Amino acid sequence: MASNSFEDSADYVQSLARGLQVLRAFDRGLANPNLTQVAERTGLSRAVTRRLLLTFQHLGYVGSQGRSFYLTPRVLELGYSYLSSLDLTELAQQSMALLSERVGESCSMAVLDGSDIVYVLRVPVRRVMSVALGIGARLPAFATSMGRAILSGLPEAELAGWLRGQKFRPLTAFTLRTATALKAEIRHVREQGYALVSRELEIGLFSIAVPIRAGDGRIVAALNVGMPYSDDAPARAAKLILPALQDAQRSIEHTIQRGGWQPHMAMQGVYD
Question: Rounded to an integer, what is the distance from CA 36 to the centroid of its chain?
Fold first, then answer.
């Protein structure tokens, strides 16, 4: 995360940061905003917002219809460049397809990006969340099984730093919403090797996740299976889902090690 001291330095490119703010203003809830709406969401002036939108339009990342703007498919190039360089998704694809077929549930892979997890691969069976999840979807790490599985790999000092930088909010009545409670849960995940999240993200959702390690032992991603919540979901997860999930985990990690894959990004930078 950028610090205020860096933002005040000569190396900080304010126009680039503002341009990214504008791109991030578009989402499912504001897919076709007008100039005023983008300016309000980003906190930028109308004049600055207009110049940035017109620049993105010239470059082919934004289109317009009447007074409304929309993102074009070219924006996907930015995310695809990351996925292409990652290569991890190609290594995991077959194992995840077999996992989903074996358990009859959707499975996903995500990486940590600041306060969120970002989906990099997904094999859906049926929709179990109100939010449509696809490649690039983001969810708050603190309330997800994959987020906790990844965070379990952090040394205590780094985990404490990450927790201090978070703003916890109650997504449901079951959400762990304090740093103390979450820290204890992440320690538990570290000890048992997997994470369970029951109705914390959405009332009707239960999920179980395991970490994925690179050849050097660092946790670089997480793999999960999500299912509708029911009274027998925890028992089913422990008895049937976890063994299949761990088989997929071992398969993916073996493929990573055999192929000599290493993360391109120093993971420490993601947690700072």
Answer: 29
- The dihedral over CA atoms of 112, 114, 115, 121, expressed in degrees to the nearest 10, equals -30
CA distance 252 to 272: 27
Q: How many CB atoms lie within 10 A of CB 176?
A: 19
Q: Nearest Cα to 22, choosing from 43, 4, 7?
A: 43
Query: What does the mean pLDDT of the chain come to?
Result: 87
Number of other residues whose CB lies within 10 A of the CB of residue 55: 14
CA–CA separation, 211 and 182 (whole Å): 17
Residues forming beta bridges with residue 113, ordered by sequence position: 116
| Chain mean position to CA 23 | 18
Confidence of residue 80 (pLDDT cuts 50, 70, 90): low
- pLDDT tens, position by position, 36-70: 999 999 999 999 999 999 999 999 999 999 999 99
Dihedral sign for Cα 74, 265, 216, 142, please. negative
| Cα diameter, the chain | 59
CA angle 163, 271, 160 (to 5 degrees): 30
Closest among 113, 115, 118, 114 to 89, alpha carbons compared: 118
Of 160, 165, 157, 79, the C-alpha closest to 116 is 165
Kindly state the tokens that stand for 199. 């109705």
Burial 217-227 (b: 16+ CB within 10 A, else e): eebbbbbbbbb
**Alpha-carbon gap, residue 262 to 11, rounded angstroms:** 29
At 30, is the pLDDT very low, low, confident or very high (cuts 50, 70, 90)? confident
On whether the CB atoms of residues 204 and 229 are closer than 8 A, the answer is yes
